[in-house]
Structure formats: C-alpha cells, structure tokens
Amino acid sequence: MLKRLAGVATSLEIVIVLAIAPVLLFPTPTRLIALSLVPVLWSGAWLTSGRAIPQTPLNPALGLLLMMVAVSLYATFDIRFSLGKVSGVILGVVMFWAVTRWTTTRQRLEISIAAFLVAGGALAIVGLLGTNWIDKFPMLGAVIHRLPKAIRGVPGAEEGFHPNAVAGCLVLFVPLQVALLSGRLRNRVLESRWITGRQTWTMAAQAVLLALTAGTLVLTQSRGAWLGMLAALLAFLSWHSRQTRALTAVAVLSAGFAAWSLGLVRVLNLAVSQAGPGMAGDVSGRLELWSRAIYAIADFPFTGMGMNTFRKLMPVLYPPSLIPPDIDVAHAHNHLLQAALDLGLPGLIAYAALWLLTSTLLVAVYRDSTVQVDRTVARGLIASLIAHFSFGMTDTIPLGAKVGVAFWLTLALAVALHRVAFSRVDHQSENPASVASSKNILTVSSE
Fold first, then answer.
1. What are the two backbone dihedrals, phi and then psi, of residue 443, each rounded to the nearest 5 degrees?
2. CA–CA distance, 306 with 259 (Å, rounded to integer)
C-alpha cells in the first residue's frame, strides 16, 4: 500500500512542484514549510525506483551549487534579504529533477518540449502586459505606449517587470521555436508533401507562439538580448552547412575589413551613437560595475557575499563614481561575476560546469543522433543557450531570480533529449511504423 501511494506521488511530482512554486517564488519563513513536501516526494521515488533524485550528468555540479547556496546563508548579512534568491535556486533544481525524472520516453519528451514552447508564449503575454517599458527607439516606443499596464504590484517588481529580464528569458525560446518551425517547413518542401489539416493547425500554433515571443523580444529593446540573438544566428550559420559557413566567414571578414578601414574607434563610436540613448553611459557604468564586482570577489573568494547582497554591499564597500547612490543596482550585469559574488568561486565553478556539461550533451546529440528531430531540437537548444549566455555577459538574470526558472527548464530539456536520443530501449523499439506514427507537433526534419 505504501509503495503504491509512493508511486502515485512520484507520478504527480511535476504537478506538486508547480503547486508549491508560488511559495518558493514569493517566500517567507512560514511559507517555506511547503518545502517539506520535497523530501516526501524524494522518499516516494526512492521506494519505487531506488533513487531519491534522478541520475543525470549534471548532478555533481548541482550538488556543489546547492552546497554553496547553503554556505551563502552563512555569508549573507541578512538571511531574509537573501531568502528569495535561495528559494529560487531550490525551486529551479527541484523543477529540473522533476522534469528529468518524468521525461524518459520520446512521447514524454515531445510533451515536455511542447509545454516549454507554450510556456514561452505565456511568458511573452505576461511580458506584454506587465513590463515597465523603457523607451529607447522612437519607432518601437510608439507601440509600447499603447500596451495596457495590466500587471503591476508583483513583489519585487511593483512598477512592472524589467524589460531586460523579460528579454533574457525570451532568448531561450525563440531559437528553438525557429529551429522547429523552419525544420518542419523545410521537410515539407524537400519531400514535396502537402500539409494536412492537422499539420496546418500545428504549424499555425507554432507560428503564433514564435510571433509572440519574437515580437515581445523586439519590443523590450534589450540591446544585450539582441546581441545574444545575433551571436546565436552566427553560431547557427557556422554549423548549419558549408554554404552558410562560407557566407558567415565572408560576412565576418567583410565587417572586419570595414572596421579596419574606417578605424576601430570610429566604428565603436558609431555603434554606440546608433544604439539608442544612454548607450555610452551604459557602457561606462558596466565597466565600473565589473571592476567593483572583481574587487568584491577578491575579498569574498570562497563564500561569496551571499545571494542578492551585492546590491546593498557594493554602494557601501565599493562605492561607484558613475552611478548615483539612489539607484538600486540589482546585480553585476555579468552572470559569471554574479555567480561568484553570490556563491564564491566554488559556486562559479559549479555554475560554469552546468553550462559546459549541458553543451557537451547537446553537441553529442547533434553530431551522433540518427533521428533528425533530435538533431533539430539539439540545434535549437544550443542556439538558445548561446543567446542566453551572450546576453548574460553584459546583463544577467541572477541565480534564483523568478524568471530564471526558464533556464532550469532548458537544462532539463537538454538532459532529457540526450537520454531519449541514446536510449537503447527507444532505439530497439523503433521501427518504420512506429517512426511514422510518432510524427506530431515536434517531428521535423532539418537535413
């Protein structure tokens, strides 16, 4: 009887984690009692499968990261001030393990990716209704001023969500959406096949989701996110085919020659002047913030300052000269520096390991999988992570941020994709009939 109940609880793990997510996104010491459900879920999983948490290649890095989160509670000047970010990391890791535990078959992988795409559309809608827009380009400003300010008063974002944070999350969705939709379209063209009614609705839904996420991304006017998308595009063209590699090489060499001809300083000044108002100040401010972050890491190398404390300690211990004291600088505007500030150098190592391990898994799927849809999804996720990583070099969504759950879901999809792509059971059961029947919303061919 106990084992049966444990099996039911394990099968509902994702639902239960989603139910307690609001508690972890908006925590108080009393609300965190809900975390007691997590050990119960893991105990049930241990009874049914012999493992409390699923085995993934990321587990060693996650273990070190969680250990440093615990250490940061000792380092922080106020646990209550750090509580939101700490509980956010816990939610992300718990969600990661729940998704990877459930996503063990190709059918479940397709459901997980479809849910991920829908979540991207939902995030875009929330962004359209709840972002505190910053007017940088007049043409886009005429659009954002017409949008309703329907979502306000969210704890931590009372005046609305920061557009850069919204953009930093959306870049995780757009490249994958483009890869899936373009792969499906290319497949139909190459095979000279008509699009059936069901496929028409599927492709229409994908196009709507892409329009939502990409359109909202453009409206955020986040220059860091736009550069991240450019980096993802260049990376995609570099590996897609010989023709696109040649095109990319010609474009890069031409740009380099033009910059050399005009003069690097002149090109940089032109780029800054055309990048919207305040760009020059933003560049100077970023450089100063990074220098202050490096000073802080040198002073707190092993424990970090504590999660979310840089915004309070930096003005006191490392006062900047270019940033007014009344401006709340939430983070160091670089995700690697911010990880070290929050969790020390061991935390930075764990965070970097998550990126390296996930990239290795996706590259393995892209290079070695014999299933074209797996390669398409891997390519889309690689581009998404490149865009997100590039965005994080000049801005960041700190570990534990509310919208940071999207990052953990992306990691979970990458791990699940690798597992399914190289699953012996999946390949042994694969036959022409089963392959044909599996062509649904995510089954595309990109080659």
1. -85, 105
2. 42
Q: What is the 3-state secondary structure (H, E, C) of the chain?
A: CHHHHHHHHHHCHHHHHHHHHHHHHCCCCCHHHHHHHHHHHHHHHHHHHCCCCCCCCCHHHHHHHHHHHHHHHHHCCCHHHHHHHHHHHHHHHHHHHHHHHHCCCHHHHHHHHHHHHHHHHHHHHHHHHHECCCCCCHHHHHHHCCCCCCCCCECCECCCECHHHHHHHHCCCHHHHHHHHHHHHHHHHHHCCCCCHHHHHHHHHHHHHHHHHHHHHHHHCCHHHHHHHHHHHHHHHHHHCHHHHHHHHHHHHHHHHHHHHHCHHHHHHHHHHCCCCCHHHHHHHHHHHHHHHHHHHHHCCCCCCCCCCHHHHHHHHCCCCCCCCCCCCCCCCCHHHHHHHHHHHHHHHHHHHHHHHHHHHHHHHHHHCCCHHHHHHHHHHHHHHHHHHHHCCCCCCCCCCHHHHHHHHHHHHHHHHHHHHCCHHHHHCCCHHHHHHCCCCCCCCCC
What pLDDT score does 271 carry?
Answer: 53
Query: What average pLDDT does the structure give for the chain?
Result: 85
Q: How many angstroms separate the CA atoms of 424 and 415, rounded?
A: 16
Here the tokens at position 40 are 């119960």
Q: Tokens for 56? A: 């993934």
pTM of the model: 0.89
Copy the structure tokens of residue 214.
Answer: 């990409």
For residue 369 the two structure tokens come to: 């999988």
What gap in Å lies between CA 264 and CA 261, rounded to an integer?
8
Looking at the chain, the whole-number percentage of residues with pLDDT higher than 90 is 53
Start-to-end C-alpha separation, the chain: 50
Domain ranges of the chain: 1-52, 59-437
Q: Predicted confidence band at 275 (pLDDT cuts at 50, 70, 90)?
A: very low
